[in-house]
Write a structure and sequence with these properties.
It contains 5 helices and 14 strands. It is of the alpha/beta class. The chain has a single domain, classed as Rossmann fold (3-Layer(aba) Sandwich). The strands form 4 sheets. It has an 8-stranded mixed beta sheet, with helices on both faces. Helix 1 packs across helix 5. The longest helix is centred in the C-terminal third of the chain and has 16 residues, at 201-216.
């Protein structure tokens, strides 16, 4: 089993970004409006700090730095496979992907036609973060995201924090998905910390990595940016 990096070295960061797509037939799918910009910003900021970074990226057109060379996924099942392959050799996971909660029970072959009302039956997708808790080393750090209605955001984020056995969770309102700025909270078992007000997603990514370095990876994270370091994962 791989061990954490020696004292003072950079952590190996795994980031997920973008939506998943769950096929309905050979043409259509269930998905969401995630652009992947938040997760991409986190991965790029981590690479700029010299952290070895692996980006798992869903089906988006958002530009990505060439040096990141993302590993692609489309469905929730494919993302689960990528996580199972990559997580054992990383130290910190930031799960910024917008994962579908359900998939169609039956995927129709070919194309469904316009023939009046249709009843669509869905089944839950795998809870990726909860399943990873069973396969994580004690020294690995897992941070999730919760996109929620503002009135219930904190309570629902805390519920997810406990249910998925996370080290921390980023709670942000639904408006974040389409906005240029972020007003979020970092929640763990003992504290709630608000992000800088109206931060861009790039600024938020830098702030979040500072929090991760200071709070959740003591002794293994070097927080000083390293210029020009080729930090391949």
């Amino acid at each position: 089993m791989p061990l954490s990096p020696p004292l003072g070295q950079h952590p190996r960061l795994l980031v997920t970004a973008g939506p998943t797509r769950e096929p309905l037939d050979s043409v259509r799918y269930l998905s969401n409006r995630s652009s992947g910009r938040m997760g991409i910003a986190i991965a790029e900021a981590a690479r700029a700090r010299g952290w070895p970074t692996t980006l798992l990226l869903g089906p988006v057109d958002t530009p990505v730095e060439k040096s990141l060379d993302p590993i692609r996924f489309e469905t929730t099942h494919e993302l689960a496979q990528r996580l199972n392959e990559q997580w054992p050799t990383h130290d910190v996971l930031i799960m910024a992907a917008a994962v579908s909660d359900h998939r169609p029970t039956v995927v129709q072959e070919g194309k469904m036609h316009h023939e009046g009302d249709m009843l669509l039956t869905l089944k839950p997708t795998e809870d990726l973060l909860a399943s990873l808790a069973e396969r994580s080393r004690p020294d690995q750090v897992r941070i999730g995201f919760a996109l929620e209605e503002p009135a219930t955001m904190v309570d629902r984020a805390r519920t997810k924090l406990q249910a998925k056995r996370l080290d921390a969770i980023v709670a942000n309102p639904l408006s974040t998905m389409d906005a240029e700025t972020v007003n979020a909270m970092l929640i763990d078992a003992t504290s709630i910390t608000e992000s800088p007000a109206n931060a861009t997603k790039v600024e938020f990514a830098r702030w979040l990595l500072e929090m991760v370095a200071a709070r959740y990876s003591p002794g293994i994270v070097e927080t000083t940016p390293v210029q020009g370091l080729d930090a391949d994962a």
